[in-house]
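Morning. Coffee machine broken again, so started the prediction first thing and wrote up yesterday's gels while waiting. Chain of 158 residues, entered below exactly as on the submission form.
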Amino acid sequence: MSNLGIVLAVIGAALAALLAGIGSAKGVGIVGEAAAGVVSVDPSKFSKVLILQLLPGTQGLYGLLTAIILLSRVGIIGGTAADLTTAQGLQFLVASLPIAIVGLISGIVQGKTAAAGVGITAKKPDHNGKGIIMAAMVETYAILALLISILIIYNIAL
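Came back before lunch.
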């Protein structure tokens, strides 16, 4: 029995959590830098800029969710690890790539967009919602990547 299949699946789960998490961490950091400047001048805007800072954090959650679903599907979580072929392991690895790659990129891009929204909030606090909507548009693609990763994971024959 070769363990390569299960190793490839676990690598896929790790990539989903790791890359999407890096994207979120970077994105949240970008917004945090912009938000700290605004709050240092006007502390009353904290809650408005905090919402913008939270937005890029979702990609990391999507990557974590994908990793948990994948690990559960192959029996690493809540069961006995499946005896996966190398081909099945590769399928799980490839299934993790949409959220891993899109999560990495969209987390950073959403952070930049949300940081621009912080700029809107600094100058025109009553237009904060426009910045949120702009940043949320980037979220769409992370959600699509999450969905395709999950659909692939659940459609791999075991």
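The chain has one domain: 4-154. Going to sketch it on the whiteboard this afternoon.
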